[in-house]
Amino acid sequence: LENMVAAEPGEALWQKFRLQPDQHEQILRVFAPDLSRLDLYVLDDHKLITEVTTGNTLPQSEKPLSSSDYLLPLPQSDQPLDVYLRMESDHQLRPHITPSTAVVLAADQGTTLLYGLLLGGIAMLVLHNLIRFAFTRTISCLWLALCETLLLASSALFLNLLSPWFPQWHSWQTPGAYLALILTAPCGLMFTYSFFSSRGPHPLHRLLLIDILIVGLCGLLLLFFNSLPLNLTTYILVALTSLSILLVASYHLQQGYRPARLFVVAMIIFNIGTLLILPALLGLTLIAPQELVLAL
Questions:
Q1: Strand partners of residue 159
Q2: Which residue has the higher pLDDT, 129 or 20?
Q3: pLDDT, tens digit, for every residue of 64-120?
Q4: DSSP letter string, 226-264
């Protein structure tokens, strides 16, 4: 399971592993938000003893257990069993599969706590900037709140937290997550532009407006051409945005504008963090998708 590679859109991904006996009920946890269909086969010495079919194309009531992940109960046996998984998706499929026991899953609240801290922290930032805008009427606060709102929506979609409430929107979940992430780019650029506009016009400010135009055109291309790589294009646009913001902020800091130092520090941390997880984003190293979302 640790050596699983991504499958291209429309391709079936097969995975086999050996299930060892355990005194507790065992459950297979599959994290794959854009999974269209999943077939589970459990064999005991070439004899089929369990078959389960689930996926986003099936009604929510037919899922084995209600959860944002796929939780598949496995049969108990005194002998090792062969487990086969067949997974299919309309998008690039990169599932994260972890066998566990019902006791461990019931006691493990760490993932839920991390999700709550992530989404709750972003929501508090949105509320903070809306309150600042209400008192100061500073347009940059509104742009920052909008940027954080889109980031909140993108994180929730990537973590598959909305599928239990909106199962009919499964086909739009992955494109919607990337689209929300792309829209954070022009919002971040407009936040930077409005923040430094008080310093007067400067040619570097036009760079931010040009970047907004580029992001908008690329977003339209992604909407009309399904053959374009959605994830790679998103990463390139976000990288372009972060480097442009860093360039503008660094210039103003060099000119003695001290509020720009927070921009510079934030963008340096963001770019270093992105470089560290870039191999995983490109599929060169294997990291759990949930951990990638939390890192981003």
A1: none
A2: 129
A3: 555 567 788 888 888 888 888 888 877 776 777 878 887 777 666 667 777 788 889
A4: TTS-HHHHHHHHHHHHHHHHHHHHHHHHHTT-TTHHHHH
Task: Report whether pLDDT(274) > 70.
Answer: yes
Q: 126-135: list long-range contacts, CB under 8 Å, 24+ apart.
A: 126/152
Give the integer Cα–Cα distance in Å for 71 and 36: 15
pLDDT at position 280, please?
A: 61
Pseudo-torsion of CA 252, 257, 258, 262, nearest 10°? -30
Mind listing the domains of the chain with CATH numbers?
12-102 (2.60.40.2380), 111-295 (no CATH)
Q: Which two tokens stand for residue 130?
A: 């809306």
Nearest alpha carbon to residue 72 among 89, 90, 87:
87
How large is the greatest C-alpha to C-alpha distance in the chain, in angstroms? 76
DSSP string, the chain: -TT---B-TT-EEEEEEEEPP-SSPEEEEEE-TTEEEEEEEEEETTEEEEEEEE-TTS-GGGSSS-SSSEEEEE---SS-EEEEEEEEESS-B--EEEEEEHHHHHH--HHHHHHHHHHHHHHHHHHHHHHHHHHH--HHHHHHHHHHHHHHHHHHHHTT-STTT-GGGGGGHHHHHHHHHHHHHHHHHHHHHHHHGGG---HHHHHHHHHHHHHHHHHHHHHH-TTS-HHHHHHHHHHHHHHHHHHHHHHHHHTT-TTHHHHHHHHHHHHHHHHHHHHHHTTSS---HHHHHHH-
